[in-house]
Amino acid sequence: xxxxxSDWYSNLGLSCPFLLENNLCMIYExxxxxxxxxxxxxxxxxxxxxxxxxxxxVQMPFSLLEALAQLTSEIEHRSIETIILPFALPWCYSNPExxxxxxxxxxxxxHFINILTGEDLAHLNGLPKLRGxxxxxxxxxxxxxxxxxxxxxxxxxxxxxxxxxxxTSDRSDKKSPCD
Length: 179
Fold this sequence. Notes:
Elements: H1 2-11, H2 33-36, E1 40-41, E2 56-57, H3 64-76, H4 88-94, E3 103-104, H5 105-117, E4 129-130, E5 133-134, H6 141-145, E6 150-151
Antiparallel strand pairs: 1-2, 3-6, 4-5
Helix pairs in contact: 3-5
């Protein structure tokens, strides 16, 4: 489902509306999961619409974006919504109540790992498998027990060693309900 929409949008030949002239994101310090799912190997010029330079898409063993969509759908008891990037901020302004939803952290993490692994963590010994990959770290009932307080889907962020690239002077000071 997401791949079809992503392919359709990609075939429009539009550049990301949130990229600055130097190809840095004007919104996020860390690229969103939706952007990180598009892993390619090749020259940066291959990502420019209309370029003849070749890039190769790296196939992933699972889609983190689809897992998060499933998690959101299941915990909110709603159908999965797909919002393409140019409409993300208007959608956030129109739906501020979704940014305020919280859930117990253990419940949310347990459910998310269950979606990725297909296993119930209550019966899991050792590291969970993500369709052939082992999760780094000790995600066990003991580790989950250390999670306290509410957790919202907005606070789920994937961090890398990538340096901070956002140029805050290029951002609007207006806060989004999705910030």
